[in-house]
Specification:
Helix content: 25-40%
Number of strands: 7
Distance between the termini: 29 Å
Strand order of the largest sheet: 3-2-4-1-5-6-7
Radius of gyration: 17 Å
Length: about 240
C-alpha cells in the first residue's frame, strides 16, 4: 500500500547515497546514539496484487547492500520495520551488509507504528488519492483537514505517535555507538518531514532509502534531513 509517489523512469544507483552521508555526518559530529527513519528500497509496482504485497526488486536488494557497506563501521545497528516484506527485507539486507563489511548489527523485528496505522479506511484513502496530484498533494490535504474524518487519523496525531516510538529508542541503553534503523513507507516520510516543519510537503520527492535522522545534541532531540534542514523536537 501507499508508496504511490514518483516512480523513477529508470533505476538509479544514487538511492541511499545521501542517507548514508547523513548517518556518517551525524556520527562524525560526536553523536553516540541515533535513530534513522527511512523509506524502503526499490520495489515492484504490480497493480494486480495488494500494494503491501509488492516486494523488493533485485536492484532494490543491491541498493540495500551498498547502503550497508557505506554506514559507519564503529556503530552497532538494530533493525525495526513496517511489517510488509519489502520493509523487513530492506532492514535485514542493510544490516547484514553492514556486518559483512566489518560492522556490528542485530536482528530486525516488525513494528506496527512504522506501518500505515494512520489510515482508517484504505479504500477511502485510495479513492481520495486517485483524485489528487500525487502522494505529496494528498498528504498536504490531510494536514489541511480537507480529507474525510473517517479516512485518516488527524495528521499531527500521526506525527506525535511516530515520534513517541522514535524518541523512546534514544533512551534505550546500549554500549558504544548505536543506530536504530526504522524502515517505513514514503507516505510516512512525507508526513514526518512536513509535520515536523523540516520541509514543505511539495518539496523534494521522497525517493527509495530517503530518511530523517533523530539524535540528541546539547540536551535537545534533533531531527535532521539530508536536504539540510533540522529542528529541535519538543513533544
Amino acid at each position: 500500500m501507499l508508496d504511490d509517489g514518483v516512480k523513477p523512469e529508470h533505476m538509479s544507483d544514487h538511492f541511499g547515497r545521501e542517507t548514508a552521508r547523513l548517518v556518517n555526518e551525524v556520527f562524525d559530529e560526536g553523536v553516540e546514539r541515533a535513530v534513522l527513519l527511512m523509506r524502503h528500497s526499490a520495489r515492484t509496482f504490480d497493480r494486480s496484487i495488494h500494494d503491501l504485497l509488492n516486494k523488493l526488486t533485485d536492484h532494490g536488494r543491491s541498493l540495500c547492500e551498498v547502503l550497508g557497506q557505506r554506514l559507519p563501521k564503529d556503530v552497532h545497528i538494530r533493525g525495526y520495520a513496517s511489517p510488509p516484506d519489502r520493509c523487513m527485507e530492506t532492514a535485514e539486507i542493510t544490516i547484514n551488509s553492514h556486518v559483512d563489511a566489518g560492522g556490528r548489527g542485530g536482528r530486525t523485528r516488525p513494528v506496527e507504528a512504522l506501518g500505515v496505522f494512520y489510515v482508517l479506511d484504505q479504500q477511502k484513502m485510495w479513492k481520495g488519492l486517485s483524485t489528487m496530484d500525487g502522494l505529496a498533494d494528498y498528504v498536504g490535504a490531510w494536514f489541511e483537514g480537507s480529507l474525510p474524518d473517517d479516512a485518516m487519523i488527524p495528521a499531527q496525531l500521526a506525527v506525535e505517535l511516530i515520534m513517541r516510538v522514535l524518541t523512546s529508542k534514544l533512551v534505550f541503553p546500549l554500549e558504544g555507538k548505536s543506530l536504530d534503523l526504522c524502515v517505513t513507507h514514503d507516505m510516512t516520510i512525507y508526513t514526518m518531514r512536513h509535520g515536523l516543519g523540516l520541509e514543505p510537503v511539495d518539496g523534494p520527492d521522497v525517493e527509495f532509502l530517503d530518511g530523517l535522522i533523530l539524535f540528541e545534541r546539547g540536551g535537545e532531540q534533533i531531527v535532521r534531513s539530508h536536504h539540510g534542514a533540522e529542528i529541535a523536537w519538543r513533544a
